[in-house]
Amino acid sequence: MISSANPSLIDDLVSANHILVNEGVLDGFGHISVRHDKHPDLFLIAKSMAPALVTADDIVCCNLEGEVIAPIGTKTYVERFIHSEIYKVRPDVQSVIHSHSPAVIPFGVTGERLRPICHMSGFLGALTPVYEIRNSVGESSDLLIRSQSLGHDLANVLKEHAVALLRGHGNVCVGISIQQAVYRAIYTENNAKLQLQAKPLGEITYLSAAEAQATAEMNDQHLDRPWQMWKRRAQSSKLY
Q1: Domain 7-225 has CATH 2.70.70.10
Q2: pLDDT for 3
Q3: Which helix (H) or strand (E) holds 68?
Q4: Catalytic: 79?
Q5: Catalytic residue among 23, 65, 67, 79
Q6: What is the rounded average pLDDT of the residues 155-162?
Q7: Structural domain boundaries of the chain?
Q8: Which pTM value belongs to this model?
Q9: What is the pLDDT of residues 61-90, one digit of tens each?
Q10: String of DSSP letters for 88-152
């Protein structure tokens, strides 16, 4: 099943892992997946490993039950159910990213909601939902989405949004392509930083719902511009 995927899709998935590390969204943890371009009931993701080290040989194929079907016997991330359950309920989604993006964490554990503060982050919309795992399993979990039922609950909180926060555990970003998902993950982190910087200065004028929609539609027309820059920057980095 992996060999039947477009090689450029696998190349982009590998590049996305490196870009997200280089841009400070992923570190030794976190993961990105992409829906199989020929089999929409399957998705591609790396083995359970640090994203910076991912190569094309490390990509595995999973079904929407979160089971690795190729290569047989290979393991992927414990939280693969984040990906499988979102793909199951969101046919529009082609790529999913889960990160522990640091500036975003405060917005999942306080009453301060993450909202679009600049035109680059209009995709956040008027409301960024927060998933509270205690509502699913009480107060004794390790916060990981390690089952289909927890992935299903998270997907139901995400709904039609581009981003959802996980209380004490980062966020999930989705997109209709790897490039869009990566863009959203990076600018979710950037927006969080700006919001934290602006808050002490006074009342923030956030984007209106109409502004958020208009700016998101505009930026989606230019995703290749930052993608190529981020890709070149990751390739030239000595991190790998």
Answers
A1: no
A2: 76
A3: strand 68-70
A4: yes
A5: 79
A6: 98
A7: 7-225
A8: 0.97
A9: 999 999 999 999 999 999 999 999 999 999
A10: HH-TT--EEEEE--GGGHHHHHSSPPP---SGGGGGG-S---EE-THHHHTT-S-S---SHHHHH
